[in-house]
Specification:
heterodimer; A: mainly alpha; ABC transporter involved in vitamin B12 uptake, BtuC; 14 helices; B: 270 residues; 2 domains; 6-stranded mixed sheet; 4-stranded antiparallel sheet; 12 strands
Chain lengths: 342, 270
């Protein structure tokens, strides 16, 4: 169980490449060679010779960079919480989207949005808080519904997740029909299109993601022990209930923040931890950080695709992750009996 | 060493263990026998701390075990659980490493000292050659040894085993129980190497292997401790017939002093 440097370097390299692509590619291509100059000029408060009318720097600093950083945080949060839920429920199909947490967060966020649209400082606090409460309710209801004795069978978890998901999505839709003007915007948001621009959402997600992801990173070893069941974990000295509570709160917190600012983006939390498992094994001390890094990279690449496939129009990124993720889900479901990497 | 004093425990308000008192001394193996449902597993779960007792005392050298934190307790008592499905993706070494959890921080950093203990546990259970294999690829006997190695890595003075030989063939049963016996009765070499004698409590169904590996036998019936003594004292036809509700004969081998328990009654006419 050594944390070797190679997987870390590979995944970080992948993330850097994705970050760069995400910054330069879009409706306007920013030549990578000018990037450094744009950044140093902006730091000196001058305009760059490559950018006489300032359009590159506006696109870079007001659109691309904040969007890229936001999706980086969201991707890391979704993949990190996905692997944490999988470890917590000892279930290969646990994913913030499939177990209803994301929809619960969405419902909470929509409820808050109908009261307060997230552009005031208060709104920036209210929406993630409401999303967090909705998500926490969803995960508690799902784990209670799915529990049989001391275990949570895969099928039960998915069924409970689907039903909670359907219920909270219905509530969200109902509220959105009632709210007039901003309807289309909210629908796009809910499908995982980050329509918000500027640095506001980034600053909104950052504290939640920082706290939640740090907590999850510290829980790798207890999650490893939990794979042998609650009873053995306790006999090995792990305070099981305490660990469970911290994992649920931390994973749900980052999911809620991601949903509140980027909408419901499914399957990242399922796909990424599985790929990391296949490549580098299931040790949670390694799986959690690598999932976060690769999740951020995957979401950035997906977003580039969402921006360019039918440019200049954008596809909500959640649609693309679902298009890729749903077949993957079926594949995992089919494999979950025989797999040896889980 | 481990003192169980008038322990009552159960589930959902239903009392299963009725005033069990038992002393497991350092350097001794106590075999816990009894029919299905007699409370053997419940006793092991209670002593290990997973099931809080309704009343009674659990002491380790006069220290109250129930007052210890989960982590402190796991430095005193290790459990080899009844084997169920183990997570297949762990390697043997990774699984045994988890036995060091009582001594690690939450990050789970392993020191050289931990590595040494893990290697020792792997050596004691003949698992060194399999250390990098995945648990999912191992046989039942090998998996059971992984659980024993993990418990050894916990370096506890008390070891509880819940039917560790249930899924093993005769050869593995014998070699497994020999290893367990060695833990309570280490060789002189081992003692010189600093290995401490442990107190071992093992729940077991096989009545024939007991007489060789157990110092004492505790017979449980309906949640009560029916009888406690040496194998020769407890493995008697009148005692076991009553406990198991089955007429039986015990054959003694005069040379070795070992005994075999055979049921008299045929289950059906041939």
């Amino acid at each position: 169980m050594k944390i070797t440097a190679r997987p870390l370097l590979i995944s970080l390299g992948y993330l850097c490449a994705a970050f760069l692509i995400s910054i330069v590619v879009g409706s306007v291509f920013i030549p990578p060679a000018t990037l450094l100059d744009l950044i140093t000029s902006a730091l000196r408060g001058e305009s760059s010779p490559f950018d006489p009318n300032g359009s590159f720097s506006t696109i870079l600093f007001q659109l691309r960079l904040p969007r890229t950083v936001l999706l980086l945080l969201v991707g890391a949060s979704l993949a990190g919480s996905g692997s944490a839920y999988q470890g917590l429920f000892r279930n290969p199909l646990a994913d913030p989207f499939l177990i209803g947490v994301a929809s619960g967060a969405g419902m909470g966020a929509v409820i808050a949005m109908t009261i307060q649209w997230p552009y005031t400082p208060l709104g920036l606090l209210a929406v993630p808080l409401a999303a967090f409460i909705g998500a926490l309710l969803a995960v508690l209801v799902v784990s209670q519904l799915a529990r049989v004795g001391k275990t949570i069978p895969t099928t039960n978890l998915i069924l409970a997740g689907v039903s909670v998901s359907a219920f909270s999505s219905a509530v969200s839709s109902l509220l959105m029909i009632n709210s007039s003007g901003e309807l289309r915007r909210a629908i796009v948001w809910l499908m995982g299109g980050s329509t918000m621009t500027g640095w506001g959402p980034v600053l909104g997600v950052l504290p939640y993601a920082a706290i939640g992801l740090t907590a999850l990173l510290l829980l790798g070893h207890p999650l490893n022990v939990l794979q042998f069941g609650d009873e053995q974990a306790q006999q090995l000295g792990v305070p099981v209930q305490k660990v469970r509570r911290i994992v649920i709160v931390a994973a749900t917190l980052v999911t809620a923040a991601a949903v509140a600012f980027a909408g419901v983006i499914g399957f990242v939390g399922l796909v990424v931890p599985h790929i990391v498992r296949i490549l580098w094994g299931g040790d949670y001390r390694r799986l959690l950080p690598l999932s976060m890094i690769c999740g951020a990279g995957l979401l950035l690449i997906t977003d580039v695709a969402a921006r360019t496939i039918i440019a200049p129009q954008e596809i909500p990124v959640g649609i693309i992750t679902a298009l890729m993720g749903a077949p993957f889900f079926l594949w995992v479901l089919k494999r979950s009996k025989s797999q040896n990497y889980w | 060493m481990l003192t169980i004093k008038k322990i009552c425990a159960g589930y959902n308000g239903k009392i299963i263990l009725k005033e069990i008192s038992l002393n497991v001394a350092q350097g001794s193996v106590i075999a816990l026998i009894g029919p299905n449902g007699s409370g053997k597993t419940t006793l092991i779960r209670t002593v290990s701390g997973v099931l809080p007792p309704a009343s009674g005392d659990l002491l380790f050298n006069r220290e109250d075990l129930t007052a210890l934190s989960v982590q402190e307790r796991s430095r005193v008592i290790a459990v080899v659980p009844q084997m169920r499905t183990l997570p297949p993706a762990f390697t043997v070494r990774e699984a045994v490493t988890l036995g060091r959890t009582p001594y690690l921080n939450w990050l789970g950093q392993i020191s050289d000292h931990d590595l040494e203990i893990i290697n020792q546990a792997l050596t004691q259970t003949d698992l060194l050659d399999l250390a990098e294999r995945n648990i999912g690829e191992l046989s039942g006997g090998e998996q059971q040894r992984v659980l024993l190695a993990r418990a050894l890595a916990q370096q506890t003075p008390v070891l509880l085993l819940d039917e560790p030989t249930a899924h093993l063939d005769l050869q593995y049963q014998v070699s497994f129980l020999e290893k367990v016996y060695r833990l309570a009765h280490p060789s002189l070499d081992e003692i010189n190497n600093g290995i401490e004698k442990r107190a071992v409590l093992v729940a077991i169904h096989d009545l024939n292997l007991l007489s060789r590996y157990a110092d004492q036998v505790a017979l449980m019936v309906n949640g009560r401790l029916e009888c406690l003594g040496t194998p020769a004292e407890v493995l008697r036809p009148e005692i076991l017939s009553k406990a198991y509700n089955l007429p039986l004969t015990i054959i003694q081998d005069q040379g070795s002093g070992l005994s075999a328990v055979l049921p008299d009654q045929r289950p059906f006419e041939l």
